[in-house]
Amino acid sequence: MTASAFPGIEKGYNITEQELIRGPLVPLYSADDSTLESGVIDRAADFINRNMNSVAWLEGTRRRVRKAYPPDAVREAIVNAVIHRDYAREGTDIEMSLYSNRLEIISPGGLPNGVTVEKMKQGVVRVTRNGLIKDTLQNCGYVEHLGMGVRNRIIKSMKEHNGTEPELIDADDRFTVRFWKSPGQ
Description:
- By secondary structure, the protein is an alpha+beta fold.
- The protein contains five helices and ten strands, in the order E-E-E-E-H-E-E-H-E-E-H-H-H-E-E.
- A hairpin with a 2-residue loop joins strand 9 (about 165-170) and strand 10.
């Protein structure tokens, strides 16, 4: 997985932070339950959390602050990218790109087995391309496998968070989830 933070709205050589995320899928623990190594999902979520800006506004006379994107929506998009990417596409990687106005998570491979963006939005589809990865993440508490994560965690969380609906784009042998910051932020 590659993660990049850019200061503007386009990719460029001026990168705020970049990380090549490799390692175990889930955290590795010692016999005394201390973490030996973080998993890629947690490291990816940490990268985004560390690089997404906070959004501040006045509510009456009080200043309010929150992260630009809801953590549960970001986590769901990362988990989905790991589970559903096409691992047969050698030389490709999951891409996470933070810009000043949006976050994009791009997973290699189009949607699998008759899945459509509309079915995902309705929460009526439960298909996985990589069953062993899904089972592993389900056993470790990262996945419920109910088929409603896009509808309930990604779309609903973003609407509640800042009133925007994320874009779900199935094109060019890749799937993109694009989160937008609040209008005017």
